[in-house]
Amino acid sequence: MTSIIPASPKTVLQLDGLSRRRAGRQAVQDLSLTLHAGQVMGLLGVNGAGKSTTLSMIAGALRPDTGGIRLNGEDFLEHPGLARKHIGWLPERAPVWAELSVNEHLDAHGRLRGLHGAALRAARTAIIERLELQPLARRLAGVLSQGQRQRLGLACALLHHPALLVLDEPANALDPVQVAALRTLIREQSAAGTAVILSTHLLAEVTAVCDRVAILHEGGLRHDGPVHSDDHAALERTFFEIAMNGNNSAARAA
Ligand SMILES: Nc1ncnc2c1ncn2[C@@H]1O[C@H](COP(=O)(O)OP(=O)(O)OP(=O)(O)O)[C@@H](O)[C@H]1O
């Protein structure tokens, strides 16, 4: 017999009162939110709003001063190894080692995440095909263009099928064809149940692929709501109201 009660969505990420100071300033303040499997959340905010600091804490690269993070229900700060296993992170500037080839990058990332032997080779082949990196597979990262490096960073983030994909300005340096391909990739990840957080300055990216948007201002969460793909103007109004005034009275009035 099938149940008529819909299954409750699986919580992948839970932030509870996250705060972090940087260079004497409050970079992120009392940030709480929950992200479910398959959700794609855009993270917006003006320069210095705290987006990268937030993503670095979620990816385990920066420890919060206070607050908690739970990943798949487990205390992430108590078990930092969870990040490697369950998170794929594309930082704002994807780190590459100039003297390693694309294949060697993927092998190194895979090993760090517990992939070895045939499983590693299969994962590497699949992601190289998916991101159409075959012509670049043997090339050294040092000779890749910025956009090609960005695709390598994406491949490293996706290699181990993470439960949570954290993308910091992933469309940086991508040409329009690659931006369209990135949108398709994000939708695919979401359909497969991966939760995605996407920090960007491009409001159109949020309208195109996100079902939810969070807006930070001076480190605080000022808006968290659904995205309506047919109403880009509503997102623009909310964003600019917060950017100019620090609050979202426009959104409340709508
Ligand atoms: N490496 C760092 N050392 C010291 N302070 C930092 C560092 N990185 C960021 N900050 C500070 O933390 C605050 C938040 O910056 P953050 O990079 O998180 O914002 P952002 O929203 O990602 O900005 P942008 O859109 O410009 O990338 C800012 O006041 C910034 O000056």
User: Could you state the order of secondary-structure elements as H and E?
Assistant: EEEHEEHEHHHEHEHEEHH
Strand content: 25-35%
**CATH C-level name:** Alpha Beta
Number of discrete domains: 1
* Rg computed from alpha carbons, rounded to a whole number of angstroms: 18 Å
Helix/strand/pairing category: alpha/beta
Mean pLDDT reading: 91
**Any idea what the CATH architecture is?**
3-Layer(aba) Sandwich
How much helix is in the residues?
25-40%
Main sheet strand line-up: 6-7-8-3-9-10
Count of runs of 4 or more consecutive helical residues:
9
N→C terminal distance: 43 Å
CATH topological fold name: Rossmann fold
Unreliable runs: 250-254
Family: Belongs to the ABC transporter superfamily.
GO molecular function, one term: ATP binding
Keywords: ATP-binding, Nucleotide-binding, Transport
Pfam family, one: ABC_tran
What does this protein look like?
This protein is an alpha/beta fold and about 250 residues long. It has a single domain (about 10-254), classed as 3-Layer(aba) Sandwich (Rossmann fold). Helices cover about 35% and strands about 25% of the residues. The protein has 9 helices and 10 strands. It has helices spanning about 50-60, 80-85, 100-110, 115-130, 145-160, 175-190, 205-210, 230-245, 250-254, and strands at about 10-20, 25-35, 40-45, 65-70, 75, 85-90, 165-170, 195-200, 210-215, 220-225. The strands form 2 sheets. A 6-stranded mixed beta sheet has the order 6-7-8-3-9-10, with helices on both faces. Strands 2-1-4-5 form a 4-stranded antiparallel beta sheet. Helix 6 (about 175-190) links the parallel strand 7 (about 165-170) and strand 8. The longest helix is centred in the last third of the chain and has 16 residues, at about 175-190. The radius of gyration is 18 Å and the shape is globular. The model is unreliable at about 250-254 (pLDDT under 50). Adenosine-5'-triphosphate binds near residues 27 and 51. Adenosine-5'-triphosphate (ATP) binds near residues 23, 25 and 53.
